[in-house]
Design a protein that fits this description.
The complex is a heterodimer of chains A (364) and B (86). Chain A is mainly β and 364 residues long. Chain A is built from 1 helix and 28 strands. Chain B has a single domain, classed as Ubiquitin-like (UB roll) (Roll), CATH 3.10.20.30. Classes of the chains: A mainly beta (364), B alpha+beta (86).
Chain lengths: 364, 86
């Protein structure tokens, strides 16, 4: 069976299925509600959707029958805020505002990670029915040095799980750098040296704790290869995100939000360049995708099938995804465009729809 | 104690009469009938969500944190979705 393609949007979850060689919208769930993340657990077929209701907060829904029915799960929740230093002065609200990352965890069906804004990690071992905060990350005083990047508060948006050892997990935070755990979340270490934030005071520009990694992606076949699209540039690591090297700019800009690693080829990745910093759309309103095949030394730019005039689309950090076999990419934009490429990003077919703003796309 | 249709659309909770000395205890008592609604009304800090509004006898209660307003027999409490966001 072909994988589903899903798009999490400002007004619901869209599920697309491929018939006669073309992806088309098959289902629309949670009409009108912002959906921020969606995950399929292939180990038991369960679907998980994270909602961000404008009035009633974050909600989690689960389906075990491919969306025919949904049940409400408990949500990741932060503890009561202490009234003593240093936590009493923490300007971050101790309330989950957004589920910004979902990932499979462990080896058993129903083992999940969730990353949130404010930046925190949560673990479920029972199919999302209960969640446990990763205390050692939340109560780490380094967290008090984090700040929001484009949002009011820091958020944890990228989770990559080492296919060799699922207890080894690496996450990225805007703006809180890159962190990893090797014991399934019991302890966390700040890693990710080498990234540079030129807007910071000079002494802080290379501080790993405040880097704005917009997204982090891992090569499944070579898990020590990780890529970061940073607020200032594209980076690659070949030592499991311990250290990063800045790459050649894909175009005249190296700003953008998403980066996606090829699952098999550690030298290949895709980005969607955007004009920094206050513009946040493709240069000259002409959408394009850039791909490197040599580890970021050089890039090719692809435009075929993408709008080239007056296109003010931005692709968010979860707005591009690739199938596990590396053959198909999908991309969704803030203007509601949704495209599929079946030739490694060199040409794109637009889905026949005018969607709400797209927060995330993926295959399940 | 009445929860507005916008809340009952997600988790139903019919109007009910509860015995309570304060606004918070009235809300807590009412939500026993619909525990799943609690997360729609309160955040993790047990504060009323910023886009939910509580009225006591038709008067908006601006305090979202203490909720220690004393109640009298016959008081009417409405919990609504605040019209925010345009």
């Amino acid at each position: 069976m072909n994988p589903i393609l899903f798009a999490c949007t400002r007004k619901g979850l869209f599920v697309l299925r491929k018939t006669d060689g073309i992806y088309a919208i098959a289902e629309h769930h949670f009409h009108g509600e912002p959906v921020t993340q969606f995950l399929v657990d292939p180990r038991d077929g369960a679907w998980y959707a994270a909602l961000r209701m404008g009035h009633f907060g974050v909600k989690l829904r689960k389906s075990v029958d491919q969306g025919a029915t949904w049940i409400e799960l408990s949500c990741p929740a932060l503890p009561k805020k202490p009234e003593i230093a240093p936590w009493a002065e923490d300007s971050t609200p101790w309330s989950v505002d957004l589920i910004w990352a979902f990932s499979l965890a462990g080896t058993e069906a129903g083992e999940l990670w969730a990353g949130t804004m404010p930046a925190a990690m949560f673990r479920s071992r029972d199919g999302g029915h209960s969640w446990r905060l990763c205390d050692s990350l939340w109560w780490n005083e380094k967290r008090l040095g984090w700040f929001g990047g484009g949002n009011d508060h820091p958020g944890l948006h990228s989770i990559v799980v080492d296919p060799r050892d699922p207890r080894h997990v690496t996450v990225a935070i805007s703006c809180g750098g890159v962190w990893s755990t090797r014991d399934d979340g019991a302890h966390w270490s700040l890693i990710g040296s080498g990234m540079h934030a030129p807007f910071m005071p000079e002494s802080e520009q290379f501080n790993p704790n405040t880097q704005d990694a917009h997204s982090l992606s891992q090569c499944a076949a070579a898990p020590d290869t990780m890529w970061v699209q940073h607020h200032h540039g594209c980076y690659r690591s070949n030592d499991g995100a311990q250290t990063f090297t800045r790459l050649t700019a894909p175009t005249e800009t190296d700003f953008g939000f998403p980066i996606v690693a090829d699952p098999a080829n550690p030298l290949r990745a895709w980005v969607v360049p955007a004009r920094a910093d206050t513009y946040r759309y493709a240069t000259d309103g002409a959408m394009h995708v850039a791909r490197t095949d040599d580890g970021g030394i050089s890039w090719q730019v692809f435009r075929k099938g993408l709008p080239q005039t007056h296109a003010y689309d931005l692709v968010y950090r979860h707005g591009i995804a690739i199938t596990k076999d590396g053959k198909t990419l999908a991309m969704g934009s803030t203007t509601g465009g949704l495209w599929v490429s079946e030739d490694a990003g060199e040409s794109w077919d637009e889905i026949d729809a005018r969607l709400p703003p797209v927060a995330a796309v993926g295959f399940g | 104690m009445t929860f507005a249709p916008h809340l009952r659309r997600h988790v139903d909770c019919p109007p009910q009469v509860v015995a309570a000395a304060t606004l918070r205890s009235a809300l807590e008592s009412a939500l026993i009938a619909a525990p799943a609604l609690r997360h729609y009304v309160f955040d993790e800090q047990h504060h009323i969500r910023k886009h939910v509004a509580v009225f006591l006898n038709g008067v908006l209660i601006r305090d979202r944190i203490r909720l220690d307003v004393p109640l009298s027999d016959g008081d009417k409490i409405d919990v609504i979705q605040a019209l925010s966001g345009g």
